[in-house]
Design goal:
By secondary structure, this protein is mostly helical. Helix content is about 60%, strand content about 0%.
């Protein structure tokens, strides 16, 4: 009798877990798949900014074909040089970051991981948040082409305090449309991505200028915009 009750409980638990997993899968697909074609109306990071600072932030979508080719390749050179080839995770960089004997390790997130975090999650280092980030990263890589990942990333990433997306950044910092960004301006925008609230593209520090020069050299080593031609 006891074994029968335990077996019945185990069956109910397995059915419950299966239902939960199915619901999580369906909700995740609903959140990710449409954005393969539709511009995201907002992001989790922007919503947090609105609630915390009572600010009004609006995204203005710019197709990748209307963005200067200098910017995508500068961002890839600065943030994720293996972007065209990996499937969401750069395991070599993750291993190197974990082996570094520093109190504060460098980041090893790919562009896809950063996009997943910006679109759906919150800042933090908890294991639960990292697990969600990994899950959405896999979904995005599985359902979106690389070109689309880069296009959405450039339209939602933060380039400065309350400055989200390439349209706002190019207009505010350089007073020009995204299609006219120069290679130097693109390198400066890429240089501030790790810390857009403490580094300025409008008034770049010596560190930002030096980092921009390094990014320009990296772009040249990769072969320039042609590096992304196959996306």
């Amino acid at each position: 009798m006891v074994k029968r009750r335990n077996k019945a409980r185990g069956g109910r638990f397995r059915r419950y877990v299966t239902r939960v997993l199915v619901v999580v899968m369906l909700v995740s697909i609903v959140l990710t798949l449409p954005l393969r074609w539709l511009p995201p109306p907002t992001t989790a990071f922007i919503l947090q900014e609105r609630f915390q600072h009572n600010s009004s932030i609006h995204l203005q979508w710019v197709p990748l074909g209307e963005i200067s080719p200098a910017l995508p390749v500068a961002v890839v050179a600065a943030e994720d040089q293996k972007f065209p080839h990996h499937h969401g995770f750069d395991f070599q960089s993750i291993g190197e970051a974990l082996r570094e004997n520093r109190q504060r390790r460098r980041g090893a997130s790919t562009i896809t991981q950063q996009l997943a975090k910006n679109l759906y999650l919150w800042s933090g280092r908890s294991l639960f948040r990292k697990a969600l980030e990994a899950w959405f990263t896999v979904l995005i890589e599985f359902t979106w082409p690389k070109r689309r990942i880069l296009e959405v990333y450039l339209n939602v990433v933060e380039f400065g305090p309350e400055v989200y997306g390439v349209h706002a950044a190019s207009r505010l910092f350089f007073e020009k449309p995204p299609g006219q960004i120069t290679s130097r301006e693109a390198a400066i925008l890429a240089a501030v991505l790790p810390g857009p609230k403490r580094m300025s593209a409008l008034h770049p520090s010596e560190y930002v200028k030096q980092r921009a020069s390094e990014i320009e050299a990296a772009v040249s080593a990769l072969g320039g915009p042609a590096y992304l031609a196959g996306l």
